[in-house]
Structures are given as C-alpha cells and as structure tokens.
Amino acid sequence: MFRLLILWLLLATSLAYAQGARPDAPALTLPQAAERVLQQNPRLRSAQFAREAAATRAQDAALTPQWSVSLQVEDFLGTGLLSGFDASQTTLSLSRIFQARDTREARMATATAFGNDVDIELESERLDLLSLLAERFIDVVHRQERLRLAGESVEVWQAANELASARERAGAAPAVDRLRTEIRVADAKLSAEGAEHELHAARRLLAATWGSEAAEFGRASALLCRLHDVPPYEELAARVSGNPDLLRFATEQRLREAEARLAVARQRPDWRISAGVRHVEAIGEQALVVGVSVPLGSASRAVPARQRAEALGRESALRLEAEELEARAVVFDLYEEVRHTVRTVEVFDTEILPRAREIRNEIERGYSVGRFLHTALVNAQAELLAAASARLDACADHHRLLVSLERLTGGEPVSLSSNPEVSP
C-alpha cells in the first residue's frame, strides 16, 4: 500500500509539472489562445501594412495627370548671326495630359479590385492561422489526456503487480506472474515518460502559433470528448461559397474584368495640350504658343492587354467552378467522418468500455481466488486501456475534422468546451 501511495504522489507531481508551466499558471482556453494569435502573431500584425499599401495604390489610381512646365531656348550659340543670343527664341509653356473620364474610373476600379483581392488573401491567411491554432490546441488537450491515461495505466499495472506478488507470497501463483506484471509496469512508465515529452513539444508548437518561444500558460482547458453536432450536409455545402479561398477566385475574376475595362478605355488616346509664351529676341516681341500631341495606334496597342485580361477572367471563372465542386466533395467526406466519430465515441461509451471494465473487474476478482490465469488478467487490463486510448483518439479526430470542415466552409474553428476538470 505504501508503494502505491508513493507512486500516486509521483504521478500527481508529474501531471502537475508536465505542462512546462508554473503550478499556479492560469488555464488556457481556445478563445483565449485565439486572442493571443490575433494580437501577437507577426504574420497577422503585418496585415495592416499590406492594407495600407493597397490603399496607397487606390489613392495613386485616383490622381489626375499633373501639369508640366517647360522652358525651351532655341537658335543660340550657333554660327554667324546665330553665334550669340541676339537671334534666340525662348518659350515658356504649360502642358497636361487630358484623359477620358472613363479611363480614370477604370483605373480606380482596377485598384479597388486589387485591394479587395488583398483583403480576401489576408482573411484566408487569418483563417489558416486560426485553424492551425485550433489543431495545435486540440493536440495539446489530446496529449494531456493521453498523459493522464498513461498515469492511470501505471497505477493499473502497479495494482496488478501487487496482486500477483500477494498470490506469489501465498504460494498460489508462480514468480513468473509477478515478473510479467513488473515488465508491464516498466513499459507503462516509459509510455508515460514519452507522453510527457510529446506534451512538452505540443505546448511549444502551440505557443509558437502566437509568436512565443516559451509555453507560458497552464493547462489547456477543454472537454475533449464533448462532441458537437454538425448541420445537415446541404447547409454546409451552401457555406462553401463563403470560403475565402474560393472568394479569391471571384475577386480575381472581378480584377480581370476591371483590367479589361481599363484596356478598352485606353483604346482612346490621351491628348497632351500645351500653351505658353515665346519671346523672339531678334525683334523683341512675344507671342502665344499652343500645341496638341496625340499618340497614334493606341487602339491596336491596347487590344493585347484587353484580350489577356479577358482570357485570365474566363480562366478564373472556370477555376472557381472546379474548386467549388472539389470543396463540396471534400465537405461531404468530412461530414461523414465527423458523424462516424460521434458514433464511434458513443459505441465506446455505451458498449465497449462498460463491458471491458466489467470483464477486467470479474477477472481481477477471479484471479485473486485462483479462478483465472494471470494471462487472462493481463489481457483484460490491456484491452481496457487500449479501448480508453482509442476513445480519446476518436474524440481528438472529431475536433480535428470539425476544424477542417469549418475552414472549408469559410468559418472560424469551433471552440472546444472549457472546463477545469479533465475530459470525461
């Protein structure tokens, strides 16, 4: 009994410090972790600069052509009568490009479409990070539960070893039974040590999601095996169109349409008009100067840009259709898998685990009075622990699948239910 007490104290200490944080560190929930990511992650913090750059591009597109001033001096420092400045002509003029109104509007529409594309890309990156956070948070909770189960496994095998030792001392069982259970105890301790190392690594990965090197938080608080109901497939499929990854194709299509309109607008040439004053030194008089410059061949030169934009727009439309069909197929697969995990956990809770416990308890009582062999007890213990581990894996798979499902349908990850106690 004293050995069991010492073992329990060691396991309790291991579970308390296995998370790499102070014992009094506050627990962390998924919403709290999401808040850290949104506030501290360097990639998300850089998003404001991408938006500022896109806004600057829109401001630049809204600018009208600027005025130009020019000073031109002719007929000086030549030969003969033109050797000095007596016959020179000096012209001071202002000029400006005059564009059609729809050219400027098309340019602004292109910049706006580009800004929308940037917003969609940043939203997609934000959801990617939140999904990664949810997956890593689930992994930490899962490994916490596996460490807890590993501690229980050590206790179970230690109890079985005490039982085998008692029967050996009573002369009712050979030493082989005790040695076999000691092997199981040693193996369970190694598994618990491995589970602790895996938890440390998972916690560091979780902290890295919000840009921290140290896992400075307490227990990841969640009920791993409290499962969520999923809406009907038809409702999930309807949400696929809100996925930023698909919206990016639609935004890209609108960008190509704006570029095509800009190319059409540029088929009309921009006129440069200038006006100024010319001073003729030879006669000491001034006169007005007016000029008009019109580029030739603008219409034909703009055709390739228009055709390119239209071709890329049609490509984006077809890619959007293909990606949407693929996304709906994946959503259906995830939907079925989520439902299967719910059914799996239900079977473990109502059928497998109760019967495994009943078998283990019956064999344990029978072994103590010599009704069952030690092999039967070992097998029963192993089956019960394996079933408990498989149930935890099914619970973790359920939440991981939900994260993938929410990401495909354009939503944020479903929050795990929080509770300071361990999962059921």
Question: What is the mean pLDDT?
Answer: 80
* Sequence of secondary-structure elements: HHHHEEHHHHEEHH
Write down the Rg: 38 Å
Number of helices: 10
Distance N to C terminus? 27 Å
What is the topology, as strand order, of the major beta sheet? 1-2-3-4
Range of strand content: 5-15%
Secondary-structure class: alpha+beta
Please mark out the parts with pLDDT under 50 across 5 or more consecutive residues, or reply none: 1-21, 419-424
The largest sheet is:
4 strands, antiparallel
By DSSP, the count of extended strands is 4
DSSP helix fraction: 55-70%
Shape, per Cα inertia axes? elongated
Question: How is this structure best described in words?
Answer:
- This protein is α+β, with helices and mostly antiparallel strands and 424 residues long.
- It has a four-stranded antiparallel β-sheet with strand order 1-2-3-4, with no helix packed on it.
- Helix 1 (2-17) runs antiparallel to helix 5 (101-169) and helix 2 crosses helix 5.
- Helix content is 67%, strand content 8%.
- The longest helix has 71 residues, at 298-368.
- Strand 3 (271-280) and strand 4 (285-293) form a beta hairpin.
- The chain has helices spanning 2-17, 30-40, 42-45, 47-62, 101-169, 175-209, 233-239, 244-265, 298-368, 374-408; strands at 68-74, 89-98, 271-280, 285-293.
- The model is unreliable at 1-21 and 419-424 (pLDDT under 50).
- It is elongated, with a radius of gyration of 38 Å.
- The two termini are 27 Å apart.
- The protein contains ten helices and four strands, in the order ααααββααααββαα.
